[in-house]
Every structure is written in C-alpha cells, then in structure tokens.
Amino acid sequence: MSRSLVSFRSCSRFLLLSACAIALPVSAADDAREALAREIAAEKGLTLEQVLPALSQAAYQQRIIDAISKPAEAKPWKAYRPIFMTDRRISDGRAFLAEHATALRRVSDETGVPPEIIVAIIGVETNYGKITGSFRVIDALYTLGVHYPPRQAFFRAELGHLFELANKQGLDLTTVKGSYAGAMGWGQFMPSSYLAYARDGDGDGRIDLFSNLDDVFASVANYFVAHGWQRGGDIAVAAEVAADAKALKPASLKPEWTLAELAANGYRPARALGHDSEATLIKLDGERGTEIWLGFQNFYVISRYNRSPLYSLAVTQLAEAIASGQAAAGP
Q1: Model confidence, pTM
Q2: 256 included as an active-site residue
Q3: pLDDT in tens, 149-171
Q4: Which of 116, 125, 164, 291 is catalytic?
C-alpha cells in the first residue's frame, strides 16, 4: 500500500480529512499527484490535507478512456434513436410522471419547464434512476483530467469542482459513483453544474441529487431556466424541404434564422406554428433517409445538457411520447 494512503483509511468522511496525518509521497508519480493536489487546493481555497488523501486514492481506469472514445452520440440518428425510444422506456416514463405528478407540476408551474421534459431527461440519463453510474467519480475525473488530452482541461477543472462540491456537501469522495465522464445522480450533473444549478427542492436545507427527487426535479428545471428556457416555446419540428432548397450550414445549434428566412430558402415546418421564431437546421441520418429538423431556442437549451443534436431530439421525442401516448416505432 502506498504510504500516502495509510493515514486515509481512518478518515470516513471528506470533511474529516483535515484532521488526518499525511505521509507525503516519494515517487515521481506521487510527486505529480501532489502537485495536482496543491493546484486544486490553491484554486478552491482548500488545504492540501483536504485534497491529497482522496486524490491519492484516485485510480486510472482504461475502461473510462475506452467509453469516452466511443460515445453513443457517435452513432447515426437511426441507431441512436432506438436506444431511448422504446415501448418500455416510454411506458416507464408515463408511470414515473403519474407517480410524481404533484411535485413535477409544482416545479413546472414555477419554471415553465414541462413535467414531461424533466422526466425525459431523467429517462435518457439514468432510465428513471435505475442506472446512475458504476464508476467512482474521482476515478473518472482523474483519469480524464490527467490521461485524456482531447478534453483534459475540462475534466481537470471538473476534478477541482468535485473537491469544492465535496467540501460544501460533505460527500465521501471514495464512494461517490457516477458515469464514466463523472456525472452524478438521477440527473447526471457534472460537479460544476451541481455547484451552479442544483437546487433545494423541498426546503430541507440540503441539496441531494442522489436520492431526493424534489431536489432532482428542481435542479433539472433550474438548469434549463438558467440557459434560457422559453415557457411555452417550441422545441423542434420536422421540416418540409423544397426541391430547390438552398444549402444552409448552421454555425451551431443556436437559432440563427427566422422561420420566414428559412421558408425563403426552402425550409418550412411540417406543421403550422403561428409564429416567426428563430430556428436552426438539423440534418440527421434517419431510418428512412435524411431527416431535416427545425430546432428552436428550447432545443438549444436542451443541448446545453449534452452538445449532441441526437441527444436533444431523443429527449424531445421521448417527452412527446410520454405526454401523448405515442408508440416507440417511427420518427
């Protein structure tokens, strides 16, 4: 056992770590880990004794690198959609919505985020709390923050946020589990999002996204509101494309053309909307060929949860199916 870990075994909670003696590391690898601990401590206003013992237990996991290298969002829409649009996930979503209708309606009335959207997020992220992640969060963020160059800076920052969160919430970093990317709880919040957007939904003075659904519902809705959710606004609709439509290349998922401008270029919503909101174009490889969608501000807001348009459309369609009774088959 590494000498830097010996004193940690007697510390059961993160907030007690400062009372534990630390045997400083001696190997080059441990020197690098201590340097990272000092960096995190300085950035977050913590002591080395509050960071190094837990960080010394963080372990590299090749499975995490393998998982992030092959995300589901790399699939085409025709393969991604069936993962989430199943009869079971829809029926489970309806049951979940019915069971928690009062709490969800209260949050919806306060924020403007529909209950079915909150439920769909939880359904896509964790299958309604059934799969919240099996990786230790500290392992995930250490592995990606140190050993995954493509997004090293992001995950290194999240590792620092994790220690900040643990200090504020009293989390035991040796036991907290989440996704391979370090997302936690029913709504799969990254540490920075937990710190910035999580809310105390039941007024008990604590924020618990692992087991308190009032907090989960309030936090998911608050995340959307903070990113610009429009109460009663459209999310996405299929587009009818004229034969002579001009090729338009969106700069991002952020709406950039009015519906009138899109119509002038050969793109119209498949159903009448009665307004001229701004939208963007989304092109996907669907079951029956190319699908073109119009994505509005609320579609963009959902994409702040996950940057892939596949994710946003899956959440949208699952929410619609939960609310309307739509079958899983078909776009």
Answers
A1: 0.88
A2: no
A3: 999 999 999 999 999 999 999 99
A4: 125
